[in-house]
Amino acid sequence: MMMRLSWAVTFLIVIGLSGCKNLTDLRAKTPDLTLVSSKPAEDVAECLLFKWQSQKLLDGSPINTFMQPYPGGKTVYTENYTAAADISKNDSGSVVRLYLPSWYIRDTFKAITNSCI
Predict the structure, then answer these.
(1) 35: which strand partners?
(2) How far is CA 12 from CA 64, 92, 107, 109, in A?
(3) Which domain holds residue 95?
(4) Which one, 19, 60, 76, 82, has least CB within 10 Å?
(5) What's the confidence (pLDDT) of residue 21?
(6) Local confidence band at 105 (pLDDT 50, 70, 90 cut-offs)
(7) What are the Cα distances from residue 61, in Å, to 14, 53, 55?
(8) CA distance readout (Å), 104 to 7, 49, 54, 89
(9) pLDDT tens across 50-100, in order?
(10) What 8-state DSSP symbol labels residue 56?
(11) What's the CATH code of the domain at 89?
C-alpha cells in the first residue's frame, strides 16, 4: 500500500513539473483555446491574473501567477509555465490564446478564461 502511494505521489510531482521551460516553448504549440472578447486586453488580463492567483495546486499551495507585457497586450502565466494566456488587442476588443500543458488545471483554467471574456 505504501509503495503505491509513494509511486502515485512521485508520478504527480513529475507530471506537475512537466510544464514547458519558457513562454517560447509554450507558444510553439497550438493554443488549447482561442477566444475573442469585446473587453479591452488589459481588463481580460487582470481578470485572469486575479482568478488564477486564487487557485490552488494539488498540495493546496497557491498557484503563483504573473503578468508581463506582450506585443499589443499582456501575457498572464503561472510559475513553471503550467498555464499561460496571451491577450492581445484587436478591432473589437481582444483575443485570448490559452496554453495549458498541465492536465490537472486544464478544465478549471478554461472555465476561468471563459468567465473573464
Answers:
(1) 96
(2) 18, 41, 17, 19
(3) 2-116
(4) 60
(5) 82
(6) confident
(7) 17, 11, 9
(8) 18, 18, 16, 29
(9) 999 999 888 888 999 999 999 999 999 999 899 999 999 999 999 999 999
(10) B
(11) 3.30.530
Single pTM value for the model: 0.81
Domain count, the chain: 1
Q: For 7-35, write each residue's pLDDT tens digit.
A: 544 444 444 445 568 999 999 999 999 99
The answer to whether the beta carbons of residues 85 and 101 sit under 8 Å apart is no
Residue with grid cell 475573442, as numbered in its chain: 36
Q: Residues 109, 91, 26, CA angle at the centre, nearest 5°? A: 35
Q: Which of 66, 84, 108 is nearest to 28 (CA)?
A: 84
Instruction: Note the residue count of the chain.
Output: 117
